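Running co-folding for pyruvic acid.
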Amino acid sequence: MRVGVPTEIKTHEYRVGLVPAAVRELVNHGHQVTVQSGAGLGIGCDDQSYRLAGAEIAADAAGVFATADMILKVKEPQPAEYGLLRPGQVLFTYLHLAPDPKQTQALLHSGCTAIAYETVTDAQGGLPLLAPMSEVAGRMAVQVGAHCLEKEQGGAGVLLGGVPGVMAGHVVVLGGGVVGANAARMALGLGARVTILDKSLSRLRHLDEIFGNRLMTAYATADAIEHLLPQADLLIGAVLIPGAAAPRLVSAAGVASMRPGSVIVDVAIDQGGCIATSRPTSHAQPTYVESGVVHYCVTNMPGAVARTSAFALGHATLPFVLALADKGWARALAEDPHLKAGLNIHSGNVTHEAVARALGLGY
Ligand code: PYR
């Protein structure tokens, strides 16, 4: 199979769809890989490292898309890329279609077969291709949230870890999945007070066992959320319903009840956000202030730590990439229901139920 890897063009996105070690695996399996010149520079991998792994280098994106049977990317195609996709071509990348009707229409129109990393499943009920980036985003949420709490960033001037004689800051995490657990780990590591909310008691029990009584857990009712908002220095939105739009857990009035200079990091923004006042931002301008609260809602948070993220993502995608290349997409999906769960668009139709429902389309 001919596999193509274009340079990512979303604002300040430096990750790349294949690292050189993965190229080598594909080439060893008898596949041809074409990488756009400079695609790996953001993670410290130059064209020569891809050549040594067996890739051909194309001068531009058109040269990659024109010949590839399968395109491997990180982020959803940008408008400049829509016209480069063609009928029958496989696109394997993050898509996040639920809040994005414009991209959905473009992919339907292209005739491509689009498989979304974020809806591929595993036998444990997890999302193996989202998990590594959820780990990154959860850990980063505390790092960026701590930075936003500084006065220069519009924050209240709170040090999350506190100092002897001054109480530590309070981090409230909505959702105890992969993002939430990683955020809690980082916040506890900094010495913050941390409360995590979830609707699953078994998940709360699990988190309690892992973190012990340094972590406060709360069952996620509207009452509990309303009670905690005025106490939070940093609120982290970490909820996910696979493929679907994120549920709105905090209203505009809830945000207004937070203290001036407190901070929201809405990691769920990729799926539309779980806080009413969240709207997508980019690494170029990551924050805005609404109701006195600093909002950080970057849709590709892991792109800021591109090297760590590209390698972590690459380790997770490689077995699926090899299956798609070795067997062809139809047989690979037929033999693996978990990979099949990634199919979002085929032959001009939305093929994932939760995505179709979120977009108000028939399924
Ligand atoms: C990202 O890492 O950017 C995702 O879309 C999950």
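Result summary
The chain has two domains: 2-120+306-358, 131-299.
The first helix runs from residue 20 to 28.
Job closed.
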